[in-house]
Structures are given as structure tokens and as C-alpha cells.
Specification:
The protein is built from twelve helices and six strands. By secondary structure, the chain is mainly alpha-helical.
């Protein structure tokens, strides 16, 4: 059966929102919003909610809307290191990881798209059976940095417009142990888990702004190769490059730790060796091209003096 045809007469809706609907000649007519009513051209019907809704301006989400959303408890660490942190649900679901965990029954993930977020935020108390999330394998400081980033768009120490890091009076100017490097590295791996690419980029950029010693760099390298995937060249390649350029000097400062690192993490040793060999291959290629250029110049036939 053919679908009934509905025509709008062309008049603007009045204050009540009603519009007049008229049928085309010879066509079946459906009066929207009424059931069982006789077909009668010119009768008033319910407004077309889809058309009206499309003309409404998008609802702006305010910070108050975020703060009105339910509180979620995060259980971080285990044993003596266990701690509890809390955050607002509407901010947490910006992370797909938390959107999945907070979804009703944890079966149908909540999308982190702006539309889905708007619905979740503005309902204030949307259904949520899990107001508590277990993160016992995650680092407390890294998680607190993540939450600080959610609420403010940054985490301490901030990255200044000058390109440097904000001074941390509680930390030494030079990282001797690797603690400052590890702080940003742990934020990086947590951001990877939580699917927060902008936080990953921010934390990785801060790593390269830390002044450190060889011991600290090796501690950082150990963490990177034990907590990141083999294909994660974003963070692994700079580590291999650093040690490939300086290992002939820095390995003496690490008192055998460099050798132990190479034996414990063969991928680290292979990446460093690959960098050294690639660099040597490029140098050899440049030398060969330079020699070929000199040979061509030397073999050029010179015109004898007086020859015309």
C-alpha cells in the first residue's frame, strides 16, 4: 500500500505551534497526532516535531551542567597504596574507557560524541548502576593528572608559552632519578589506556622538556619498554635515538645498568643498534656521493691553452 501523502499549506505556525495540513488531490491523507479521525482537509493537526526541533539552536553545555552530573568513585591502586578519588560522570565519559564502564549495565557503551555527551550531561542523573570503578592497576599520581586535565585542560607542571615547563619548587632542577620523566611517561600510558590522544600528545611533549641525567634516562627507557607496545614508535623511537647517539659515552655513567637493560629488553638493544647502523649507513651514502662528485670533477677534460 502506498504511503499516505501529507502536505503543509505553507502558513507559519501560530503561538500554539499548530499548522494546517492539506491533502493532495486523490491521495490518502493522514492527520498527524490523531488516531481514528476522519480524513478532512483543513483540520488542525499536531506540529511536526522533527521539523521544529531541527530549527532549535543547539543547547550549550555549561560547566554547572557537568558539576550536576553524578559523582563516580575511582578506586586506585591496592594494599597500602590504595586510594579513592571522585569525579563527575559527565567529565569522565569524555574518555571512551569510562564511557564504556559507566554505560548502563556496561553492555551498550555510551558514545563520547558531542550529541551523546549533551544528552548525558543535561539529564543530570542518567541511569548508571556503576558509580564505582576499579583502577587498582593504575598509578595514583597519573590518575590525578588525568583528572586535573579533565577539569582544567592542563596538569602540573604546566607547559608555558615559552615552551618550557612551569617550575616545580618541590623537584630538583635536574632529574637525577627519573621520577620527573616517569611522571609524564605514566600519564602517557594512562592516556593510551583511556583513549585520550590529546593528553598523550601533551604528556609526551613534556617528557622532552625535562633536564635529566643518564641514570634517569635509563630508568625512563626501562619504563617505556616495559609498558608500551612494540609498534608505539611515538615514544620508543626518541628513546632509541637518544641512546643511539650517546650510548658510547653514557653507558660508562650507568655502571653496568645499560648492559643489564639491553639483556633484559632485547627490543631496546635492537632499536638502539638499528639507529646506530642506519646512521652509519646514511653517513656512508653521503661519503659515497661526495666521492663520486669529486671523481666526476677530476675526470673532466680540460681544454689546452690556446685552443679555440
Amino acid at each position: 500500500m502506498a504511503d499516505p501523502e501529507v502536505r503543509i499549506s505553507g502558513g507559519l505556525a501560530d503561538e500554539s505551534g499548530d499548522v494546517e495540513m492539506q491533502a493532495g488531490d486523490g491521495a490518502d491523507v493522514m492527520e498527524v497526532g490523531e488516531t481514528g479521525a476522519d480524513d478532512a482537509p483543513g483540520d488542525e493537526v499536531a506540529e511536526d516535531e522533527t521539523a521544529v526541533g531541527a530549527n532549535k539552536p543547539a543547547t550549550r553545555i555549561t560547566f554547572v551542567d557537568y558539576l550536576k552530573s553524578p559523582i563516580v568513585t575511582l578506586h586506585i591502586g591496592s594494599g597500602d597504596a590504595a586510594a579513592q578519588l571522585t569525579a563527575h560522570q559527565a567529565l569522565l565519559v569524555k574518555s571512551p574507557f569510562f564511557a564504556d564502564a559507566i554505560a548502563p549495565n556496561s553492555a551498550s557503551p555510551v558514545s563520547s560524541s558531542p550529541t551523546s555527551l549533551s544528552v548525558l550531561v543535561l539529564t543530570n542523573h542518567s541511569p548508571c548502576k556503576k558509580h564505582s570503578i576499579d583502577l587498582r592497576d593504575d598509578d595514583l599520581e597519573a590518575t590525578s593528572c588525568f583528572l586535573e586535565y579533565l577539569y582544567t585542560g592542563e596538569y602540573f607542571p604546566h607547559k608555558l608559552p615559552s615552551g618550557n615547563l612551569q617550575v616545580d619548587s618541590s623537584a630538583p632542577a635536574v632529574d637525577q632519578t627519573g621520577d620527573q620523566l616517569l611522571k609524564h611517561a605514566k600519564v602517557y600510558t594512562l592516556a593510551e589506556k583511556l583513549s585520550m590522544p590529546t593528553l598523550k600528545t601533551l604528556s609526551h611533549s613534556k617528557i622532552h622538556l625535562v633536564t635529566s641525567t643518564a641514570v634517569a634516562e635509563l630508568t625512563y627507557a626501562r619504563y617505556v619498554y616495559s609498558h608500551t607496545k612494540r609498534e608505539d614508535a611515538t615514544i620508543r623511537k626518541p628513546v632509541a635515538s637518544f641512546w643511539g647517539q650517546r650510548s658510547h659515552v653514557l653507558r660508562h655513567e650507568t655502571e653496568g645498568t645499560f648492559r643489564k637493560m639491553c639483556l633484559e629488553y632485547p627490543e631496546f638493544a635492537f632499536d638502539v643498534l638499528s639507529f646506530v647502523l642506519d646512521a652509519e649507513e646514511k653517513r656512508e651514502e653521503r661519503r659515497r656521493k661526495a666521492d663520486d662528485g669529486n671523481a666526476e670533477k677530476g675526470s673532466a677534460r680540460k681544454r689546452p691553452r690556446g685552443e679555440k
